[in-house]
């Protein structure tokens, strides 16, 4: 007679995933979609291990040593670094001034319709117009805005400030709205049901619980603005970008290395500032809108912004002059009518497929690597090993995102040749640093009670992550991942400068030849792709928030 089999433990039954069929179906569909993307992006990692590729990369990296340390050059780099930082700060300040009111208007969580009250056609239409305006602003690459403003006001930081302001207004408005809508709706709903206004619901309901994420993301966008300011230098915006372009043309690798080291220091400084601000803002002080903790970081940023506006040579009068407006109209008129010939549209379709594949595969790789690094970067400090691992991981994330996508692409083009594959690798490398930083901040901002309760009951660390940490963090992580995918579509336009494939390479080619009608068609294709990804992001956030 066989002994009866032991009963199944209640613990194993409790932690069986009830939605495993749906998750398995999702993974199968994702794999089915990923394969054609890999083919379209020409993803062939074995090319990187070819002896010729390894020799080319080693020769390129060897030119960086020794770094340039001449006093005159360091003084020039310091001055260029300030112009870069000031351009980024001034542009971000203008973007925030425009994005905050647009966020208040466009966020559904703050409207009366969120509590079941009818919403008029006019407010609904205004909210939709705001969403489309934000999509348009962030869909047009900074290079296109910069080329427009360089034509109007000439070379210098004015064009860079205006280009960053317009593009980053769209970015900030989108993410600010998603952060507010990902927060617990109970406080805002209570205020709205009791007759509170949209502004009161924001100040006393949504802002207190969302402030750490908003501050962290704003400081992160300042990092990105610094990198965008560098890119503006390649089209005449001054600063480190202009100096780097000159050094790269002269094959002065030591000078390039010194300027990249400055980037790393700037990003590390921003990371320290972000963590300090989140520590100050996380806690009971959030409930007091007038406390010094709430005013410290805005005052510091305002001081930096004022210094930036004062020291930069900004030619506002030239921008607002009748002659400048006439040049702007002439520049914009050159884009119309867009080229819609069948042959060119077929090329646009191929470029759009390459851009989608580059951005999607690059973002997927970055999400996988970034999540692993974020888990290490968000480990609680205390023991020596976790503390060292945390510091090393943070440094790696800073390093990855400090190097602009354009420099990553130049490196990968040397290793793998022209085409979408080096663009995919460049987006993956840079986005890993970005996603890892954002995911780590999200994990650190989570309430610790659910995870602590499971750990106190002897649940394994993996189960704690799957059933306590991940469900809380997933909506924000998905929002960040989809946003970075959208951002990478636009970033691919910058990579076209070095021949990294996709719509970006087409845009750079036609702009270089002043073929504005063809460039207009490329920009419209980018707008359509970004709008589609935005709609997908909005739908997924709605499903995850239920």
UniProtKB/TrEMBL annotation:
Membrane topology: Multi-pass membrane protein
Stored Gene3D superfamilies: MetI-like
This protein's record includes keyword Membrane: yes
Cellular component terms per the entry's GO annotation: plasma membrane
UniProt keyword annotation of Ribosomal protein present: no
Membrane-spanning intervals of the chain: 20-41, 53-70, 82-108, 154-173, 256-275, 295-312, 356-379, 406-429, 489-507, 519-540
Domain named ABC transmembrane type-1: residues: 81-274, 352-537
InterPro entries with a match to the protein in the record: MetI-like (IPR000515), MetI-like_sf (IPR035906), PhnE/PtxC (IPR005769)
Keywords linked to the UniProt accession: Cell membrane, Membrane, Transmembrane, Transmembrane helix, Transport
Subcellular location: Cell membrane
Highest taxon above the source species: Bacteria
GO molecular function ontology, one term from the record: ABC-type phosphonate transporter activity
Protein name per its UniProtKB record: Phosphonate ABC transporter, permease protein PhnE
Organism of this sequence: Zeimonas arvi
